[in-house]
Amino acid sequence: MRTYDVRAWVVWLITGALLAIFTRNPFYLVILLTISRIVMAACASPEATKWRLPFWRLAGVILLFSTLFNWLIAHLGQSVILTLPANWPLVGGPLTLEAAAYGFLSGLSLVVLLAIFMTFNAVVPVHQLTRLVPGALHEMGIVMLVAVTYVPETTRQFQRIREAQAIRGHRLRTLRDWRPIVIPLLISGLERAMNLAETMVARGYGSTVQVRLSNKTRLLLVAGSLLFLVGSLRVAWQATDGWVMLFMGAVSIGLVYRFSSRENARTNYRPLTWSWADSIVILFAIGTLVLLIGSVTVIERSVLAYSPYPRLLLPAFEWWVGMSLLGLLMPALLVLVP
Amino acid sequence: MISIQHLTYTYPRRSKPALINVSWRVSDGEFVLLAGPSGSGKSTLLRCLNGLAPHFSGGTLAGEVVVCGHDVVQDGPQKLSQHVGFVGQDPESQAILDIVENEIAFGLENKAVPTTEMRLRVEEVLDLLDLSPLRSRSIVSLSGGECQRVAIAAALVQKPSVLVLDEPTSQLDPQSAEDVLRSLVRLNEDLGLTIIMAEHRLERIIRSVDRITYLEGGRVTVDAPVKEALQSIAVVPPLIQLARELDWRPLPLTVREAKRFITSDERRIAETTQSSMVSQLVKHSGSSLLEVNDLSFSYNGHHTLKKVNLDVKSGEAVALIGRNGAGKSTLLKCIVGLLAVRSGSVSINGRQTTGREVADICHEVGYLPQYPDDLLFAETVREEFETTLRNHRRHGVVGFEDLIHRLGLDTVSERYPRDLSVGQRQRVAIGAISVTRPRVLLLDEPTRGLDMQAKGNLVSLLRKWMDEGIGLLFVTHDVELVAMLARRTYVMSQGEIIAAGDTHEVLGSTPQFAPQITRLFPESGWLTVTEALTDLNLNRPTQPDKRMV
Fold this sequence. Notes:
The complex is a heterodimer.
Chain A: H1 6-22, H2 26-43, H3 46-50, H4 55-73, E1 80-84, E2 93-96, H5 97-123, H6 126-129, H7 138-166, H8 179-202, H9 215-236, H10 241-263, H11 276-299, H12 319-325, H13 330-336
Antiparallel strand pairs in A: 1-2
Chain B: E1 2-10, E2 19-26, E3 31-35, H1 42-49, H2 52-55, E4 60-67, E5 70-71, H3 72-80, E6 84-87, H4 100-110, H5 115-128, H6 144-156, E7 162-166, H7 174-191, E8 194-198, E9 211-216, E10 219-225, H8 226-232, H9 238-245, H10 255-259, H11 264-272, H12 276-281, E11 288-299, E12 302-313, E13 317-322, H13 328-336, E14 343-348, E15 351-352, H14 358-361, E16 365-368, H15 381-391, H16 400-406, H17 422-434, E17 440-444, H18 452-467, E18 471-475, H19 479-485, E19 488-493, E20 496-502, H20 503-509, H21 516-520, H22 529-539
Parallel strand pairs in B: 3-8, 3-9, 6-7, 7-8, 13-18, 13-19, 16-17, 17-18
Antiparallel strand pairs in B: 1-2, 1-4, 4-5, 9-10, 11-12, 11-14, 14-15, 19-20
Helix pairs in contact in B: 4-5, 4-6, 6-7, 15-17
């Protein structure tokens, strides 16, 4: 089975998320949703798909709330369904079909965003994500990884303790009743943390490689931060030199990143390898993004936007937009190529 | 390899040292078993070998510990991690990362070992511990034994010359424990790795080790080759106990070795006598306290329990045995209502439990879960008991002084429960679930993690309760416990009861579950040392008892 580099997935995620945020046209949203589900089905490892949020149930709740909320609160639009007494706070006034439709579309956009993140979550193992963390911040990556193994264990423990307390006649009613559950959970959590720390020490954690910044890097860090601070102040005062300072600050912080990563070399058990398929995934994702969002500057309107106001009309569907969205389907298509 | 001179170690804020004047040597390639009751200093001694004590735990250390030419106190655990691999007790809390391979590579990545070398070393330990089929699995999905093998692999990948294990099998079922031990024996024999291991359950390990070091109260009391050491240790496995009583020398360590010592007289007695103990155990046969009829339970579409029938009578102990995942614990949870049954019924004291709340059911049934620590949260032992009574809204009842006494907790009743020893904590938990005086007790793996002493205390406590008419149903992997306690035994497999009946018949006819004594005298129907000795002495016609001389 083909797997992609985590960096390719990050580009895919950013593209998908940006499109989901900017799109209100229901046709395109549905296409995006379908694509993300197909990619998940095609690329997720069977083990990762075992543990999932109940997506459709969650989507239903989001759509329902978003629609109801907008329908009751926004009193815009021409197709009035019913009118509530005007003196009712917030909900009083005409309730329109357009408001409901707008709420539904906003909800749909959220659902698509959720679907894209869930796909990313299912196809990229967490330990791969930490590879993106530069060497100097290695510890932070480890903390994240440890947390990932720690959380499911804690939920299991919570379940066990609840059962253990229930059999001695414990019932959860008031806040005070949480004490018999929280205390064992806390204590066993601490015990587990101590065990883990002991294991890490016994396996030589923190022994040979030490995170250390050279003086040069430190100076750069200070200078970069100062430039950034002064630059943003200057920009706030509308001075053009502020932009130059901001840029220089960004460059020096980038250099700090680079130096510190080089000074704190780590090795990886499985180094990331880049394949042609990763390049194609990235190219198509960026292509889609440029085509759909960049087109705003050329045709001076967003092809993705759609507004039901003032009167609900069927949204337009342009074939080339639909086709370009398929660029995000690349990861699933390449799986078919041997 | 290891040389310890006059080691005395005291934990921070403790007045009594955990280790007192220990001098000990281990030479290259030895497999040493560290035995002794819990709290005797086994874990502490192991932690002194790689510098976790005093570097990680604090405290004061006097004397000298030298491992592989390194002074442990000076060099500390990080440096020693290259020489001493350490594996702890609880398989689950040792996993740092999520995937098997990454977990093993963790230490090497941290040391910035070059990728090519790292691949080679990981590959090597995956083979050594038979882990390559599991390499890309997530740790959460592994069984306890597999987890423990991953932990050993993660220690071995650093290429240590000593492997130190702190009760690595105490949380495992027999099959997983066997797998772990087999791996260790192979490492010792094939690679000449020095292994030092602390363990309670001696029966499986004694045939593989070279030497036993026995600790008591922080001092080394016995330190000798296996056979010699077993002569002087107080609590030993049944086979050794019998061999000592019958004066078999040199001590046999396996059933096969022991069979050579059986005289024709003894064989004749074993074949002809009907065990006198059978009738003794059957003396109580009261009314039925717990009845389970055609109980089924399914989880995620899997039939975890299929039409289970079971009953427990007043004054008897019933054992439930079977492989891991056979549905034993699930059955207990269904009985107390923690899991909703699909069909069938449970009745306690003649009343159906359908539709009743867990709290209400547990008023009449005491259920001890697998991890008794989950119950403990109060400031004092006494308060734990009061809490249960309060939960059941029985403020007025002040009858638990007697219970505290009978559980042997008088001296610690005002102490913080979590500071007590494993055995004491378990008794507090038993007290907390039985303070409403239920007539039925359900115990899930009651001997897990207990040393021989604590196990003995538990057995005598339970026997006393049975005499008073309490019915007992317990789930266990410990066949010796079954032999000592249970009148009837049920065997479960894949959610079904596959065998049920008198313990002597059930254990006698299934070699997998047979206790050592039964394996030694297959025709006899004996399960325990006491049974065997009673019959042998009663029926021995000639010469006076050897032991009297």
